[in-house]
């Protein structure tokens, strides 16, 4: 007899980290997942019936803005929980200057697990009204290194926005300098790439294994697709050497034609994330991570691929594979339950591109650290 706290029974488990997509139970003791031996009798203090639902590891939104109250574009982190998201990575909202406030308020004050990619620009990305300063002479390398060394479990990467309107006259200099800083502190660099100041091929060629090219399917300026409709050669080379491609869709940082061309070419994203901000939360253009995942289902990716791109893959990118993003033995007891609902819903993005999404991952319940933190009223 195995005595546990919570049993989520008879759902369809989708756990790409373990190659599982089959009916089964999820068992939780304390804040960990337990996988009882075959045939063991499980007695649970609480049983949830999940028949007809999909049960996945708690989702990881690898790119969002959750420094709520600290920047003009951020949302409150715990608004992620009703979307099945149990881990969110803040993508450079905070730089070193406001970091202690970010840590105390957004990280320690939240139920959802918050990790971050620290902006190389000291003030962070605080507003959409004007870009952050990316003069490499202003990068405070010693303070960045000291902060990264002090909070290694929280700061999982550095972030830079390498768009022409952000870098201005500095061109590729800020990216080169940021790569040097990332190398010095031993962290991946996450690079915003819309409207790059060079060809996407040239930008991709600069990135190192483990670095993240985000907004990979953007349609502004030079894109990852060449005139013949194929992924560019240095983009392919970057993937082959271990650069990760994150969609970070946002309202405007993705293009349906680019996505279709990339997928037709066999170029799937490693990570699917939202780039969620206050302007896109619960709005038709982004809404939240399950809606973005549903769009990639519609684009032709499989359920295992989209769930993997929001669980196993970001967990690996964060150096937390096996602990997060899986329902394997000993993993954090973070679980999401979804109904897959059929209904044609028209969705648009800020570029005016439209698509009809017919299957929707609708969150039914979220478990974070072994506790039920969200439940749809009719999910009993
Ligand atoms: Zn962003």
Give a structural overview.
The chain has 380 residues and is of the alpha/beta class. It folds into two domains: 2-56 and 330-349 and 360-375, Urease, subunit C, domain 1 (Roll); 58-317, Alpha-Beta Barrel (TIM Barrel), CATH 3.20.20.140. It has helices spanning 99-107, 141-150, 164-167, 173-185, 200-206, 233-240, 256-264, 289-298, 303-308, 312-317, and strands at residues 2-15, 20-29, 32-34, 42-49, 54-57, 59-64, 85-91, 113-119, 155-161, 189-192, 212-214, 244-246, 335-348, 354-368, 371-375. The strands form two sheets. Strands 1, 2, 3, 4, 5, 13, 14 and 15 form an eight-stranded mixed beta sheet that branches. A seven-stranded parallel beta sheet has the order 6-7-8-9-10-11-12. Strand 10 (189-192), helix 5 (200-206) and strand 11 (212-214) form a beta-alpha-beta unit. Helix 5 (200-206) runs parallel beside helix 6 (233-240). The radius of gyration is 20 Å and the shape is globular. It binds zinc ion. Residues 63, 65, 91, 248, 275 line the site of zinc ion.
């Amino acid at each position: 007899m195995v005595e546990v706290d919570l049993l989520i029974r008879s759902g369809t488990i989708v756990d790409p980290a373990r190659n599982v997509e089959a009916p089964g139970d999820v068992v939780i003791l304390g804040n960990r997942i337990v996988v009882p031996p075959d045939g063991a009798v499980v007695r649970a203090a609480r049983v949830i019936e999940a028949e007809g639902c999909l049960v996945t590891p708690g989702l990881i939104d690898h790119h969002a803005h959750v420094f709520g109250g600290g920047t003009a574009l951020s949302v409150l982190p715990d608004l992620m929980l009703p979307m099945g998201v149990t881990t969110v990575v803040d993508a450079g909202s905070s730089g070193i200057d406001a970091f202690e406030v970010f840590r105390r308020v957004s990280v320690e004050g939240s139920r959802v697990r918050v990790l971050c990619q620290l902006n190389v620009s000291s003030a962070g990305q605080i507003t959409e009204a004007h870009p952050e300063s990316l003069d490499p002479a202003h990068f405070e390398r010693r303070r960045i290194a000291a902060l990264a060394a002090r909070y290694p479990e929280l700061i999982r990467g550095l972030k830079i926005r390498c768009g022409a309107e952000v870098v201005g006259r500095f061109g590729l200099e800020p990216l080169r300098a940021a790569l040097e800083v990332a190398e010095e502190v031993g962290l991946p660099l996450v690079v915003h790439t819309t409207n790059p100041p060079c060809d996407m091929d040239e930008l991709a060629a600069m990135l190192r294994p483990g670095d993240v090219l985000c907004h990979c399917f953007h349609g502004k300026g030079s894109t990852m697709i060449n005139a013949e409709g194929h992924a560019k050669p240095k983009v392919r080379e970057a993937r082959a050497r271990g650069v990760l491609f994150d969609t970070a869709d946002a309202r405007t940082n993705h293009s349906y034609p680019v996505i279709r061309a990339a997928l037709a070419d066999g170029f799937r994203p490693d990570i699917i994330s939202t780039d969620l901000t206050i302007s896109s939360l619960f709005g038709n253009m982004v809404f939240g991570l399950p809606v973005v995942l549903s769009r990639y289902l519609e684009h032709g990716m499989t359920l295992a691929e989209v769930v993997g791109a929001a669980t196993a893959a970001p967990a690996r990118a964060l150096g937390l594979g096996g602990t997060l993003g899986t329902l394997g033995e000993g993993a954090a007891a973070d679980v999401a339950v979804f109904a897959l609902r059929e209904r044609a819903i028209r969705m648009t993005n800020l570029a005016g591109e439209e698509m009809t999404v017919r299957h929707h991952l609708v969150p039914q319940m979220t478990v974070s650290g072994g506790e039920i933190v969200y439940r749809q009223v009719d999910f009993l």
